[in-house]
Amino acid sequence: MKKRFLIIIMAFCFSPLLFGQEIDPELTEAWEPVPEKVTPGIFPGSPPSDAVILFDGKGLSQWRKTLVGYGGSMAEVEKVAKIRAAMTEYEEQDAEWEVKDGAMIVVPGTGAIETRRAFGDIQLHIEWLSPVDPGKTGQGYSNSGIFLMGTYEIQVLNSYENPTYSNGQAGAMYKQSIPLVNACRPPGEWQYYDIIFTAPRFAGDGSLIKPATITAFHNGILIQNHFELKGPCIYRGEPHYVPHPEKLPLLLQDHGDRVRFRNIWVREL
Amino acid sequence: MKKRFLIIIMAFCFSPLLFGQEIDPELTEAWEPVPEKVTPGIFPGSPPSDAVILFDGKGLSQWRKTLVGYGGSMAEVEKVAKIRAAMTEYEEQDAEWEVKDGAMIVVPGTGAIETRRAFGDIQLHIEWLSPVDPGKTGQGYSNSGIFLMGTYEIQVLNSYENPTYSNGQAGAMYKQSIPLVNACRPPGEWQYYDIIFTAPRFAGDGSLIKPATITAFHNGILIQNHFELKGPCIYRGEPHYVPHPEKLPLLLQDHGDRVRFRNIWVREL
Amino acid sequence: MKKRFLIIIMAFCFSPLLFGQEIDPELTEAWEPVPEKVTPGIFPGSPPSDAVILFDGKGLSQWRKTLVGYGGSMAEVEKVAKIRAAMTEYEEQDAEWEVKDGAMIVVPGTGAIETRRAFGDIQLHIEWLSPVDPGKTGQGYSNSGIFLMGTYEIQVLNSYENPTYSNGQAGAMYKQSIPLVNACRPPGEWQYYDIIFTAPRFAGDGSLIKPATITAFHNGILIQNHFELKGPCIYRGEPHYVPHPEKLPLLLQDHGDRVRFRNIWVREL
Amino acid sequence: MKKRFLIIIMAFCFSPLLFGQEIDPELTEAWEPVPEKVTPGIFPGSPPSDAVILFDGKGLSQWRKTLVGYGGSMAEVEKVAKIRAAMTEYEEQDAEWEVKDGAMIVVPGTGAIETRRAFGDIQLHIEWLSPVDPGKTGQGYSNSGIFLMGTYEIQVLNSYENPTYSNGQAGAMYKQSIPLVNACRPPGEWQYYDIIFTAPRFAGDGSLIKPATITAFHNGILIQNHFELKGPCIYRGEPHYVPHPEKLPLLLQDHGDRVRFRNIWVREL
Q1: Is residue A47 part of a domain?
Q2: Quick check: pTM over 0.80?
Q3: Minimal Cβ distance to D76: which of C19, C43, C66
Q4: How far apart are CA D196 and CA D121, in angstroms?
Q5: Beta-carbon separation of B102 and C42 below 8 A
Q6: Which secondary structure element, helix H or strand E, spans residue B193, and what is its range?
Q7: Which of A209, B258, C228, D37 has the fewest other C-beta atoms within 10 Å?
Q8: ipTM for the assembly
Q9: Any idea what the CATH number is for the domain that residue D65 is in?
Q10: What is the overall mean pLDDT for chain B?
Q11: Which residue of C has its CA nearest to A184?
Q12: Cβ contacts (< 8 Å) between A180 and chain B: which residues?
């Protein structure tokens, strides 16, 4: 009985050409466009040939002190948007963070830094390290943040055996999306994020056409799975979208802790 | 003039606490759920603590010869679905591919293999290598495929300086989605895919609630960005969804070439 | 003038077959022995096919509590040698160190641990991490040690911006050989040693035939270049050789600090 | 009985401070010199802070066509030495090898290339790849060589399932030292050597004071363990030392096969 059944199955299985031959397979071949060739880096995590290198351990030439910052509430976000719209020219100020042993280090009090260049949809690789400080807890332990377009924050924090609110731990889209798992290494060890970010699209009248989305990996482990952002990541209140340019700088937060970053690169999508 | 403008900006920038203090930031803290802890692997690409190891170089215990295969046309896909529905028990047959030097190798003629275990939404890491054969071209050069749920194929092919139709090259969702870029290494070198796959959802009556999606990286470079599949990846004709179980085995194709695979693991999402 | 000179040189350069043809090149071919095949690991630092895995993150089955320890002075070393010679059987006691997040951690007060298996000449890969503790200094900051044959110590210590005597810093052959450079990463980060150790050879009467030698890399950087050890690495006094068996366990020191180790393997040479 | 024995042992074991207290441990502390700090690369195999980068994938600026080459017999070696001694100035000719996909490739017929800079004792990292060519065998399959000081050759060859004389296979010190094991990956895959080379020392009268030595790892596996070279690595006849300068260029051989190299760096010891 079982054997006969098997034989029937096998017949199906090994005769894939018996069915549907009336349809020419060439009809569904697409020969254009031909994808552009990109040479991968030698090591997993090292930049591919088309990457924009934002930090290779040697200096902060790709970064400047942010002049407009980010907003902690919707009121602030709106003011930031207005300032941006009003700004036509300004003197760029160099980033004042420290560079040491191939890493850049937040110098508390010098303020957030942002890329001189603006980006929209990107693939981002960034490595970070929480300095060890047993006296610190919760949001006070190695807090920083990666603000995509200076607006949408993936949290940087020591979340290894350091409880805090779940939508504020490492890998959270701050106050919007809890990471799928906690993939944090202990403070003192290097960690990395690999991020796919799609910028929001706004209509001419400023209304939202499509929200921003993020997919993120923490140390190679999926923590955000195509999450649709509700608007800017803010500290107080509920977010909603405020229209902004198609490209904006990537910003790294100074939250008072000497968090380190290294090996930062993006690919524009 | 410029200076005064700067001062205004700086005022905004360094006074984040001036705005919106009426809203208590604790209102938007979510303390539950607490994400499960997962320990990352030592090396980028090595399995995290919660991974199901499908191949670690030592044997094919996680794999079997497929008994139902995949369909090359919608007619075949539907028959496969019927067989699956009819099957209540059968003897599993061991995979007959070769294991050598820490890799598993397609043995042409032995047929596709599939995991003994079934999966739905997954993160997948898989490494593959096209053997060098200068005489081969197009679809004939190192062809294999990774069929998510035995149905949705990401193409495996030598696409380094080997033109073929774009929706059939390495990293294509076969005949549905051209990869964003060509990140192929030359034949003979190891390559890797990191994949986030979300299974389609079907209603009780078999109608589609939500299509399957895929995000894929080839050698660390984004090649599929949350692509919504149109249905099974088929050789002939246009695809449409056919309902199937929530979990199905992962299948690797025998397309007649001695393609190698290694370091295969999944995380269930 | 210059041109003519060049031509002469080029004539030498491109006529390698003009000279010495009287000697048959086959005379200097050696076809035996044929070296054994070893398959390398996938990642740099992951174990090759012929490695003895001493710790893969999952447990301490390869280790035991040491019963004889090591000596801090020549008097002690000699007593240890006598005890070893007298021991014919004893109950092995399990190592009491902690295993967490894929690492093993010194539990201060539980004592040194050693491999159940004994080794002579080896290639050793071992990764270690100094926990951060800003209050500590000098030899008090993350002190441990890797005792080859339970006798010849390569120092484990935080030597990143933590001065101590040079022949006692990380990578020193303790009190015998200063490392060539200081390749230490900051405390909190994983580091690795790759070591080639050749055991000393003793004559039947216990006299030294050949001293032990060590070549060591710290984070991939050469720090000991075929150093000839003067005898056991001791805390007090000048060392000299004391004869011992051809193979002895590898020992890891409990020096009171919660140093972590992981990914430990050896190849017997 | 056994228990009492154990207690005695434990007494030895846990009382390291009972012995030899008469000797002050500070007497054997060496505080000078303080080893220079070197920052390791991010990835295993990536260059440390003090490395001379010889090839980073982007061009051949560090290389030139060799003007004197190497010798295939002692007669040739001696002529090469005479030419070197006679050369006071010459026009450097650019290396004519190909650069593609981050690798440099031997262009058969263009001749060996050598570094513009000269080196003595070094740590060398170099990656290489044998192109696949099933028609080739023995010494004819992906032959090249790395000539330390343009004189002492570690063999580059496909030695994966490709028999040849053992002292001429990959990792051999050509015709002098068989590699300890065969750690070769298949052709088409990248491989790497990590090498510690100590130059020979000659007296003022040209007599040998100390032979050259080499320790080498192939894909992380020890293959040469402080081997003392007998002289130049030659094709015909028995080698003996011919005096040469303290530093000489590193040379890569054109043996007619399109072998690839990448990620080449040295540290001067």
Answers
A1: no
A2: yes
A3: C19
A4: 8
A5: yes
A6: strand B190-198
A7: A209
A8: 0.92
A9: 2.60.120.560
A10: 92
A11: C101
A12: 35, 269
